[in-house]
Amino acid sequence: MAADSKHRPVYVISVAAELVDMHPQTLRLYERKGLIRPGRSSGKTRLYSERDIEHLREIRRLTQELGVNLAGVEEVMRLQHQLDDLQQEFEAEIERIEDELRVQAQPPALPPSGEKPDPRDRPVYVISIAAELVDMHPQTLRLYERKHLIRPGRSSGKTRLYSERDIEHLREIRRLTQELGVNLAGVEEIMRLRFELDASRTRLEGNVRRIQDDITERMTKWRTLPAPEMPGETPDDERGGEGDREP
Predict the structure, then answer these.
(1) Angle formed at CA 201 by CA 122 and CA 220, multiple of 5 degrees
(2) What topology is assigned to 68-106+120-221 in CATH?
(3) pLDDT digits (tens, 9 = 90+) for 10-23
C-alpha cells in the first residue's frame, strides 16, 4: 500500500514558514513543544509535509481565532498526532493482512464473536453522584453536556446517567481548565478530538476484524475445494476391481 502523499516531507523550513505565514523560529519552537513533527533529510535538514502544514494552520486557528493557550494547543495536537498514528497503524495492518492473503498464510486468531461492550461505557451514575465524584456542581455538568464535552446516557425515564468514561472525561476537563488554564474553546477542541479518536479506533478495529473474517472465509473455501484430477486418472467408481473381471 503506497504511503499517503500528505505525509511525504517535501518543504524546507523557509518554504513551510511562508506557506503558513509564520517565522521559521516559531516553527522550531512548535517542534520543541512536540506540536509538529517534521521529517529530516539525509543531511538532517528539516522537511515539512502537507500534513505538517495543515497542523501549523490548525495551531494558528487555535491561538489566533479561539484564543487557546499553548498548553491547550499541546493537548489538541497530541490527540491529532494520535489520530494520525492510528490511521497509519491501520494502513500498516491492512497491508500486512493483504500480504498474508497473497501467500495464503493462516490469518491471525480472531477475537470471539459477540464481544461484550466496554463496561466503562455503561451508564450507571445519576447526575448528583457524578458531580460528587468529580467535585463539580450538577449545573456545570449540564453546561458541559450542552457544549458536547460529555455525552451522558439516558434511562427509560430520560434521567441522565453517566458512565465511568464520562467520569474520566469530566476529570480531564477539570485538569485542562484548572491545571493548564485552557479556555472553554480549547477544551471543546480537545474533547472533540478525544471523541473522534475513540470512534476512529473502534471503527478501524472493526474494519480489521471484518477483513480478517473475510480472509478466514476465503481460506476455508479454498481448503474445502475438491482436489483436481490428474490427467489420465479414472474415477474410482468407473474402475473395475480384480474380482469383477471375466476370466
Answers:
(1) 100
(2) Multidrug-efflux Transporter Regulator; Chain: A; Domain 2 (1.10.1660)
(3) 899 999 999 999 99
